[in-house]
Amino acid sequence: MNMLSDLQDTIAAIATPPGIGAIGVIRLSGADAIAIADKIFKGRKLSGQPTHTVHFGHILSPGNGAIVDEVVVTLFRGPKSYTGEDVVEISGHGSPFILQKIMEAATEAGARPAKAGEYTQRAFLNGKMDLAQAEAVADLIAADSQAQQQAALQQLRGGFSGDLARLRDQLINFAALIELELDFSDEDVEFADREQFRDLISHLKSQISGLLNSFRLGNVIKNGVSVAIIGKPNAGKSTLLNVLLNEERAIVSEIAGTTRDTIEETLNIQGVLFRLIDTAGIRQHTTDRIESIGIERSRQNAEKASLILHLVDVTDPDTSVIEWLEPFVDKTITVWNKTDREESHSSAISDQRSAIAISAKKNIGIEALKHRMYELVIGDTIKTENSIVTNARHYDALLKMMDSLEAIDAGMSAGLTGDLLSIDIRRALHYLGEITGQVEVDRDILGTIFGKFCIGK
Ligand code: GDP
């Protein structure tokens, strides 16, 4: 793909979702956006108008001059626009037919239909946002829970990028000092205080490990928490499933790019998506209790799930299940059901950290159960202001960055010289740069050297 000639094109696309709406928007972006709009817009001449202004008029077909629609046009002159280029947004009536006609008019006048993600790609190439932010735009558009939206918004606002930029600055500073030693290698000087550097590396390591840990949560936010309800026949699994779903049945949607065997029932607890797996098994099982769900299938579900609700009938406790659930104890909540039939123990049960007493049939303790589910998975992490890594590419780069930091650490313990250390430092910087899309490390290092030390003044 020839990126440069691509960038010279002025692109056009319908920016609003397909279907009928009160308003539909066509967005033009590129050097000729305003000139192209002028060719099809009858109203004020747009090329004479200041940026961030709105104009009423008509779109005319360039072919026969017929009126296509009555519209409002919004003008953004670069660089103060989403893409950083001149942008014209044409708001017409939201009929797919009319919008298509406006698109045809725009392309006849010289615009090219935009490719997927091309506006955001241009915003990145024009320095309006970094790669992590561009990826957040995609996440935001795909968000279907509040937690997803929050994580994406935080990333879009640059919280995560800000963290990375700070890490990067610290490392570049040090790289500059180490590289400076290379220029004076004959004189056996150490500009870079090794003790200070060790502190810096351990500080960086703890920050990176915080980000790496947040990925578990990020993953939860992005993909939801898989939940298996396990219990012997008659424990009340389908009753519990119904009471959970009846209250807060979430909208089930297929998220592009994720593969799921089946569409699962989902539950939204405080903005986090919980996916109840194998609900068909539980449901189907009500007609064919004993046979349809074997212990093997339950075990597989338990293994796959991030969270297990082990449902036990207080009037008929079983130990057979408990044994094989043992390895999963950290992700299991023992739910004692049917406490309406045996009140006496329920408060004692609910005091235990990993157990809770409910009555699925009478809808008692369900709120507390949901709270427990949320706490077990999310804990305090989501309440912090810290950045949450939701993107596998970022996670991967951070892992490699961590490796490089370990190597630097080991290198210093072994008393490596600056030139060898600098290889690992560059590697760490490279992976950091991969996340935000800025890997021109050399120029930065030189810039810092010259900026700070005025060599060759
Ligand atoms: P499953 O086999 O685990 O799916 O269990 P079901 O949900 O089909 O429930 C089995 C029986 O227990 C049904 O008759 C339910 O009405 C009853 N049951 C479920 N939860 C409760 C409860 O909290 N209290 C009482 N008393 N009965 C319950």
How many helices? The count is: 18
Write the CATH homologous superfamily of the largest domain.
P-loop containing nucleotide triphosphate hydrolases
CATH architecture grouping of the largest domain: 3-Layer(aba) Sandwich
* Structural domain count: 3
Name every ligand kind in the structure: guanosine-5'-diphosphate
CATH topology of the largest domain: Rossmann fold
| Fraction in helix | 40-55%
CATH class wording of the largest domain: Alpha Beta
Q: How much is the average pLDDT? A: 78
Overall number of strands: 13
- Coarse shape: flat
Q: Which range does the strand content fall in?
A: 15-25%
Strand order of the largest sheet: 3-4-5-6-2-1-7
> Uncertain runs with pLDDT below 50, 5 residues or more?
1-5, 247-263, 284-292, 445-457
Integer-rounded radius of gyration = 29 Å
Report the end-to-end length measured between terminal Cα atoms: 43 Å
Look at the helices and sheets and give the structural class.
Answer: alpha/beta
